[in-house]
Specification:
Blueprint (H helix, E strand, L loop, with lengths): L2 E6 L14 E2 L2 E2 H11 L5 E6 L2 H9 L3 E4 L11 H14 L6 E4 L9 H13 L4 E6 L9 E3 L5 E3 L18 E10 H7 L7 E5 L11 H17 L1
Parallel strand pairs: 1-4, 1-6, 4-5, 7-11
Antiparallel strand pairs: 2-3, 6-10, 7-10, 8-9
Length: about 230
């Protein structure tokens, strides 16, 4: 079975300038994900897709294969589904076929090779066609409301759930953006990372930081320094 790891990395970002190559610890942000992917025994090929020449150059330096992304798939409103489809199509033109895709977003640098291997073990042992990493939130969406167009409250799920004891409500799961695994045939069929046999992978709380602000960078840098000190 051939497994493709895709690391999507646009040149621009709204929150932090040049976020994907910002320094985290002793290396660029994207390098943490590249190195974790390359260490995995499951992954056949690690590709960084970007429209940005500097990101592609840095990614190549850290050992990833690179793919030039068309600029229309690197805009603020570009869909990750389109990026994945473009990657599969470009590789298909080179007669490179894969069975499974794992999407590893560079904004989750605390996700390491152990997490990737554990996710694949779970994926294969359950004969799943999809996997999404995340956590069980402290507050369930079943207890929340939305405001309708007339300004009245409605239950987010239904109007009974907000008044039911939490213990009686279904377990919920929130994605953390670190790992998405999908069978490629299922992805092509559904145009989605979600399949009818998608399994959750619950990660430890400290792995759930997804970099979106400068404060997140400070938190992760501190965590990396702590981890090195403990080792």
């Amino acid at each position: 079975m051939k497994i493709l790891a895709l690391i999507p990395a646009r040149g621009q970002s709204k929150s932090i300038l040049r976020k994907n190559i910002a320094k985290i610890g002793d290396k660029p942000l994207i390098a943490w994900t590249i190195e974790a992917s390359l260490k995995s025994k499951y992954i056949s090929k690690t590709i960084v897709s970007s429209e940005d020449s500097e990101i592609l150059m840095i990614s190549k330096k850290y050992g990833a294969d690179i793919l030039v992304r068309p600029k229309e798939y690197a805009e603020d409103n570009s869909s990750i589904i389109d990026v994945i489809k473009d990657t599969i199509n470009q590789l298909g033109l080179k007669s490179e076929k894969f069975d499974v895709l794992v999407l590893l977003q560079p904004t989750s640098p605390l996700r390491d090779v152990h997490d990737i291997e554990t996710a694949f073990n779970l994926f294969f042992s359950h004969k799943a066609t999809g996997l999404i990493s995340g956590y069980e939130p402290e507050k369930t969406p079943y207890k929340s409301f939305k405001i309708n167009n007339e300004g009245w409250l409605e239950g987010m799920i239904d109007n009974k759930s907000p008044f039911i004891n939490r213990q009686q409500l279904p377990k919920t799961f929130y994605p953390n953006g670190a790992i998405f695994i999908v069978n490629i045939n299922e992805f092509i069929k559904n145009d989605s990372l979600f399949t009818s046999r998608t399994i959750p992978f619950v990660m430890s709380p400290e792995k759930n930081i997804d970099i979106d602000t400068m404060e997140d960078i400070d938190k992760i840098t501190k965590k990396i320094i702590e981890n090195k000190h403990n080792k």
